[in-house]
Amino acid sequence: MFVDLPESELRQYRSSQADPADFDAFWRDTLASSRRHALGVAVEPVDTGLQTVDVFDMTFAGYEGQPVRAWLRVPHAATGPLATIVQFQGYGGGRARATEDLLWASAGYAHLLVDTRGQGSTWGGGDTPDPEGSGPQGPGFMTRGIDSRETYYYRRVFTDAVRAIEAARSLEVVDSDRIVVLGGSQGGGISLAVAGLVDGLAGVFPRVPFLCDFPRSTTITDSDPYKEIGRFLATHRHKAEAAHGVLAYFDGVNFAKRASARAWFTTALMDPVCPPSTVFGAYNEYAGPKEITVWPYNGHEGGGAYDDEATLRILADLFA
Amino acid sequence: MFVDLPESELRQYRSSQADPADFDAFWRDTLASSRRHALGVAVEPVDTGLQTVDVFDMTFAGYEGQPVRAWLRVPHAATGPLATIVQFQGYGGGRARATEDLLWASAGYAHLLVDTRGQGSTWGGGDTPDPEGSGPQGPGFMTRGIDSRETYYYRRVFTDAVRAIEAARSLEVVDSDRIVVLGGSQGGGISLAVAGLVDGLAGVFPRVPFLCDFPRSTTITDSDPYKEIGRFLATHRHKAEAAHGVLAYFDGVNFAKRASARAWFTTALMDPVCPPSTVFGAYNEYAGPKEITVWPYNGHEGGGAYDDEATLRILADLFA
Amino acid sequence: MFVDLPESELRQYRSSQADPADFDAFWRDTLASSRRHALGVAVEPVDTGLQTVDVFDMTFAGYEGQPVRAWLRVPHAATGPLATIVQFQGYGGGRARATEDLLWASAGYAHLLVDTRGQGSTWGGGDTPDPEGSGPQGPGFMTRGIDSRETYYYRRVFTDAVRAIEAARSLEVVDSDRIVVLGGSQGGGISLAVAGLVDGLAGVFPRVPFLCDFPRSTTITDSDPYKEIGRFLATHRHKAEAAHGVLAYFDGVNFAKRASARAWFTTALMDPVCPPSTVFGAYNEYAGPKEITVWPYNGHEGGGAYDDEATLRILADLFA
Amino acid sequence: MFVDLPESELRQYRSSQADPADFDAFWRDTLASSRRHALGVAVEPVDTGLQTVDVFDMTFAGYEGQPVRAWLRVPHAATGPLATIVQFQGYGGGRARATEDLLWASAGYAHLLVDTRGQGSTWGGGDTPDPEGSGPQGPGFMTRGIDSRETYYYRRVFTDAVRAIEAARSLEVVDSDRIVVLGGSQGGGISLAVAGLVDGLAGVFPRVPFLCDFPRSTTITDSDPYKEIGRFLATHRHKAEAAHGVLAYFDGVNFAKRASARAWFTTALMDPVCPPSTVFGAYNEYAGPKEITVWPYNGHEGGGAYDDEATLRILADLFA
Amino acid sequence: MFVDLPESELRQYRSSQADPADFDAFWRDTLASSRRHALGVAVEPVDTGLQTVDVFDMTFAGYEGQPVRAWLRVPHAATGPLATIVQFQGYGGGRARATEDLLWASAGYAHLLVDTRGQGSTWGGGDTPDPEGSGPQGPGFMTRGIDSRETYYYRRVFTDAVRAIEAARSLEVVDSDRIVVLGGSQGGGISLAVAGLVDGLAGVFPRVPFLCDFPRSTTITDSDPYKEIGRFLATHRHKAEAAHGVLAYFDGVNFAKRASARAWFTTALMDPVCPPSTVFGAYNEYAGPKEITVWPYNGHEGGGAYDDEATLRILADLFA
Amino acid sequence: MFVDLPESELRQYRSSQADPADFDAFWRDTLASSRRHALGVAVEPVDTGLQTVDVFDMTFAGYEGQPVRAWLRVPHAATGPLATIVQFQGYGGGRARATEDLLWASAGYAHLLVDTRGQGSTWGGGDTPDPEGSGPQGPGFMTRGIDSRETYYYRRVFTDAVRAIEAARSLEVVDSDRIVVLGGSQGGGISLAVAGLVDGLAGVFPRVPFLCDFPRSTTITDSDPYKEIGRFLATHRHKAEAAHGVLAYFDGVNFAKRASARAWFTTALMDPVCPPSTVFGAYNEYAGPKEITVWPYNGHEGGGAYDDEATLRILADLFA
Where are the residues of the annotated region Disordered (chains A, B, C, D, E, F) (predicted)? Predict the structure, then answer.
């Protein structure tokens, strides 16, 4: 069933999320601090048994120089520079096994699939630790470090993601001017953060993006992971205002206002996990050229392989 | 939690499934009848946008000449003859989109991913109709045509599968002596049927196979799709004996007794969908050389990508 | 809880379902084709052990002459012509056992309880096959043959139902001018189709009718069987428009526009299976004299025996 | 799935329920006390609109003279004396509407369908109050008055049931020597109690009987209504021994030991509500001639209409 | 997720509950009748092993003189007169064990925790019987005696509660002018009834109160215990109007109109058990000075210990 | 329903958990390292408004000197030395609010309720951070740092607990020779660890203890939190052996072997969270004097207030 506003109202909906005055300063300082560490990119070939795709185990220095793992996949023996897809994962997942996710490299692109620190134990195993501790937090990652914007978990994740772009750009096989970022759910939310923090991207593909419009998303659904925040605040009843003050620095709505790259969003009208109004909350603020695909009968799976095929066509046009 | 017998008892367990006296005659006649129709293999290239893998939309004549669809994927510009993987799908799924499932072709094999007639509307869309009607049946495919062995749905599916091997063998790109069959869940059940009905296979990979040990599987779990049979018999209380009489002709236990190709099974101790005793029911009867991987902490997802990686290593050895 | 619009809005609600230009031609041709087959009515007495009611196992030629089963029940030794109730069953059920559903015959009426082809394996066993195959379909009957209006499952079901009236009218015990049609849920939807396709009915009793207002019913509830369509379209994402184009030929809203017999609807405000707005979607279009009973605290069970008692009173008046 | 012991063990299983030394004295005194009140049978014809069955609203004096309601149904204008079925209802239900349950009268029998005091608000509305209060009790009827055998709810219910037989025997239309008692679930449990307390019954039909083998039934299932007792004891932790001491006076196992009439039990191997071992707990103690039908694929619905048809055949033989 | 109207609409919402003309007469007569019985207060010390709090097992004559149990807790060796908290329990619970709920006495108050008759078998065991029987009722207490306002269960409960205040006032340790009533959920509903029926209270603390705004609460949620009424009316379809006629005499909305004591309500925006609109339905009618705390991220647990701490502060001010 | 072995088998059951050769060395080194940091006990009075109990906000140096929070509660103005209860919390909870849990201080004991680091966001809010990061982990705390025994979360928690005893012993109000440890579920597991690591305890009260018998507890239940480990291993399929190697250092079974203080266990036969065999797995190894209370009809709530009352009686005897 449709879980949210009618589509006509979705297209008019405006998020109530505030835009913190020092949002840009916070992120500028955050990134500057991490950039003091060398990128430290290491790329090791993996013996996968594949013949048409080469896979590399890549490590780079993310937040405050902490190592982040990714798979780099390219067409066999490709030298580049190639148009490149940097992909971020959905909540709970990691970069998974080296032999998975062969689509983008098979289509002739360089493909960097980046771990989300600490995650990757629910599906698609991850290999990247999150070396930072936390105040009291609920199960999951949504409230890790939520006591301050400095300690909040996604400060590290988004910094890792920005550094992932910079690491990609450092590779010979990558054409720095032809990088797009892509991801579904949490990966879509990270893509929006990257779109708001990194210049010169060729495109952004936030699919059924998560991490958007917290004032609404924390109150409109009982699905995890947004509900993790609600459960935390149900226990820590005195922290609601402070928590939302922190979340404003990590909301896709605010990153969307600062983005300039061309974007292709998707959303699904039966998605209780990332309800469409929260996606439109970011989409309607998105400052760059944009399109959105609305899947009427889908839930959080969104367009699935149909989205992949559409992206292949868009990329072919984009890089023609 | 472990859903079935302890592993030590699993390894001793013997299914009570009967071996119908005319089992072989039934299948010989069934296949002979369908073989009167020309194979009618058609292979059309698909414009996927992929560069390292070529995908073909393949049609061949299955049961009684009825058309069955499959994707044929090969490394770009491969001419063969290649070692080949013929794969069957899990319950409810179809061959899905042309751009999915690139692993086997990327590893240098020809890969034929065959539709299951009528299915492919629950996940991984299918494109093959099932032109046969049915007596009263429950939702799903488990009781379609269950009134007789002649009309039972899986008679058509297994015939399609045998014909898929024959269609593969008709292709220049395929090395007829180096074909393995592989599938998970229903695809594992179909693989067992093929192993029992087709000679000269190089290997069989039934993963968490379904369609095994019906006397036990219809009474030991409340999970679909086995439960479809139970619900049908809860309504049609007078048909239980007859239905089991039909099912004996389609039970992986009976196909296993007739198989000779080397086999690598997998099963999972927390799998309520295809409980491990029903897998061992087939495995313990399997007449060819065999191994089984037991995943202790997994459910019906079994080994997932870990199974794929193991299969890649086995195939590399097998075809070295 | 109330699952839909407030009652005042329900009474104003108008469905958005389109009225296909060739709707009447489609059904005229469909029925004409099937009418080329003889009705072939066979009526066999059943040895039930009952003393006050005689039960007959009736067969007649439905869609394209295919045999359809029904129970004919009459007061013991009745010769007629009797006022007659033709009843259709809810989703998943069949005509059930000969000794069930004695109410209407005990009240002095002829009662024809018609199987729904292929169904009757979930409850109330059925005995009528559906000899037609289907393209890829989801579990259940809602998407069987949905690829075209010609192959859609309910084309056959509704034709069977029209032929059931004609078969009833061919019986001596039936008074052709005093036939009412009745059914709950799917039986209500079939009753509406009959009301739109057959002249001269004395009354129509669509109770909590299903198969109404597909544009809304496929998006307003997650309950089966409407949800079967949603799941199909979630997989076959490119077929939504075509499927709705087909469904328009089978929507109770469109049959209601063409009905003329007096009708007594029922609906329930807590019914998530056939939400009341979808019932009002048909009711508000119904072209004949009409009443509707609204049960505030009931779900899909609607009025149950209270509806039966009301119908007994209405029939007594109608046929006084 | 099978929810209990294998059938071979079921047939050997013996309940651990104790047989209180003063069980017979308790029930003799209980019945004697209520028999001091006149039976006070009142039988009022109901205007149902039915033509083949006459329905009467019957009231009689149950426990301590408190009025109990029942429907008496007979073939139209029958004068008797007729073989008679006295039926008790499942948990939560009442005698329902006058126009329901026409089977037995349509088969030529007198049919007395007795309310269960206080019940009939969950399904099949009831009309009989339970004028007695209770100590603290959980939702439902299982722990009402459980503080002593004198105040326990089923003391009143079973006394009502015994008085129902006596009331039936007082009617001209009833043949006192040809009375059978029948009921499903709670109705089966009441039937067993009647079988243990009343002489001269022609037959007993406990279908999937409830109220049996409390030491096992309160610990082997999480389904209501047995679980009502478990929840009560989870709160009133100090009352477990006392409660079981009370329940021993109301256990079908103990009534079965005292029964002499011929009995036809049914049970279902997938019934989590009245698990088959608890039914066999009573069946294996049953002192009269006995048979049991085991439905392998059914849950608590048991044999449904199949059981009815079997009962019709048994009754025809019995009263031939 | 938010389960009800936005907070701005909640503050404007007005219940549609009717105000029966003889509401005051009904309650005046009800209380007068019970007051003909002596209060019969008995207070027995309990040997708890506690050193800082003395606990007494108190009994008093409630409705029509029937005994009601409560715990009286005071600071060790307190002689009073003390400011006093009379507390009523949530649905299903009783006064629990003597050693629980030490907060209020530890804060220096007399604390009377009153059983709810018949309840206390779901959690927090109770010791008070409900000696009155009932017509047919559903599981639970919501429909016990609902056939008339005279027999309705809460007539007895609210009378018990009024008598509890009178019993408290009869104690030397209690300061009759400094009594507040407090309770969560059902305890909040009882508190509102007391506020409408008793003069001279120092304060009222209805937390997430139940038993409010029946026209809305019985139709806006599927959660028990409100749903108990809906299920009853789903079976007894003809009793809806009568039942609501009875409920109007027991609705917190109507008691709120008659209250004068200062009140501190709480409600939670994610509470499906006592949805916030039904709380505001009472709050917005409340005739005395009032405040309400709205917990945005909580369900039926409301403010929990945060509410306790706020109450401690309010009481300290109130009795400073 | 009973969820595990019959009680007679429980009493014979022996866990298969291994006893690592360097278990004692590991813990000796662990504790020695943390003891290099000063205990740093700080005790601040809290203004709670309570009159009979004084509450102090206590901080002490736990694992590697990291600060841990606790509530210290004593009878008002108590000077000691008092017999003392050190309590640890169940999974997900923290020390909660200062005004909660007044029982033990009201009974005349000093009561130290210790936070579990990082927890306290699911219920009973906590105030203690866990400053250590982790490799990839699943939601919750069970797999935090599970990659090695050095980094495993419970190494820090158990060290905090040992230091809590030492901190308690440093207080004047505490009688160092009369300390008991108590806790339910996780708190019971921590109590067992303390019993194995600390000498001179007067008693141990592990109620329905968690963290026991990992080889069995990770495979016998699907309930969290044990299932957290299963889900982790379902993803990280290659880490099962290593993870169990780590867990052996934290298993209550192994601590039980090393304990000497008198112990009172409780367990519940219907507890799916900490199934009774896993409790008996520790109990049957417990090396000190021991008793166990078995609650037959309870789940994970165990004895609740009944356990508290029993403990009060035991403590009164113990410290008489």
Answer: 120-145
In whole angstroms, what is the distance from residue A86 CA to residue A160 CA? 12
Which amino acid does the sequence have at F278?
T
User: Rounded to an integer, what is the distance from CA D40 to the centroid of its chain?
Assistant: 22
- Report angle CA C178, C180, C183 to the nearest 5 degrees: 165
Closest residue on chain E to F123 (Cα): E304
Per-residue pLDDT band for E320 (boundaries 50, 70, 90) equals confident
**CA neighbor of E201 nearest in space, from E172, E162, E173:** E162
Given a cut of 90, whether residue A80 has pLDDT beyond it is no
**pLDDT tens digits along C272-311:** 999 999 999 999 999 999 999 999 999 999 999 999 999 9
Contact B231 C122 (CB under 8 A): yes
Which residue in D118, D124, D231 is closest to E137 by CB distance?
D118
The model carries a pTM of 0.97
CB nearest D129 (choices: E128, E134, E139): E134
Q: In this complex, is the C-beta atom of C122 within 8 Å of any C-beta atom belonging to chain B?
A: yes
Beta pairing class for C53-61 and C67-75: antiparallel
Q: Which two tokens stand for residue E34?
A: 């019970």
Give how far F76 is from chain A: nearest CA, Å: 28
CATH of F7-318, one of 3.55.10.10, 3.40.50.1820, 3.30.465.10, 3.40.50.300: 3.40.50.1820
Asked if residue C265 lies in contact with residue C292, where contact means CB atoms within 8 angstroms, the answer is yes
The pLDDT tens digits for B76-116 are: 999 989 999 999 999 999 999 999 999 999 999 999 999 99
From the CA of F153, how many Å to the nearest CA of chain A? 11
DSSP string computed for F101-120? --HHHHTT-EEEEEPPTT--
- The span from the CA of F157 to the CA of F152, in Å, is 9
pLDDT score of E80 more than 90: no
Q: Does the model's ipTM exceed the 0.90 cut?
A: yes
Question: Tens of pLDDT along A25-50?
Answer: 999 999 999 999 999 999 999 999 99
Write the residue in C121, C129, C135 that is nearest to B133 by C-beta: C129
- pLDDT for residue E247 is more than 90: yes
Strands (E) across chain B are located at 42-45, 53-61, 67-75, 82-88, 110-114, 130-134, 174-184, 203-207, 263-268, 290-295
Chain D touches chain B, with at least 3 Cβ pairs below 8 Å, answer yes
Candidates D34, D185, D191, D217; catalytic one? D185
The DSSP secondary structure of E66-97, one letter per residue, reads -EEEEEEEEETT--S-EEEEEEEPPTTB-S--
Backbone φ and ψ for A235, nearest 5 degrees, come out as -90, -50
Q: Residue E24 corresponds to which tokens in the numbers above? A: 């005051």
State which residue of chain F sits closest to A129, comparing Cα positions. F135
Question: Three-class SS of residue A304?
Answer: coil
How, if at all, do strands D263-268 and D290-295 pair? Answer: parallel
Neighbouring CB atoms inside 10 A of C5's CB total 17
Confirm or reject contact between A1 and chain C (CB < 8 A): yes
Note the maximum CA span of chain C. Answer: 57
CA Rg, chain D, in Å? 18
Is A303 in Cβ contact with C219 (below 8 Å)?
A: no
Residues of A noted as catalytic:
185, 271, 300
pLDDT tens column, E107-162 = 999 999 999 999 999 999 999 999 999 999 999 999 999 999 999 999 999 999 99
Window F:247-306, CB contacts with E under 8 Å: 305-306
Of D270, D295, D299, nearest to B237 by CB-CB distance is D295
pLDDT at residue A320, rounded to an integer: 86
| Chain B hits for A51, Cβ within 8 Å | 75, 106-108
Measured between CB atoms, does C106 come within 8 Å of chain D?
Answer: yes
Average pLDDT value for residue range F109-124: 97
Residues whose CB falls within 8 Å of the CB of residue E69, separated by 6 or more in sequence, listed in order: E57, E58, E59, E95, E115, E126, E127, E128
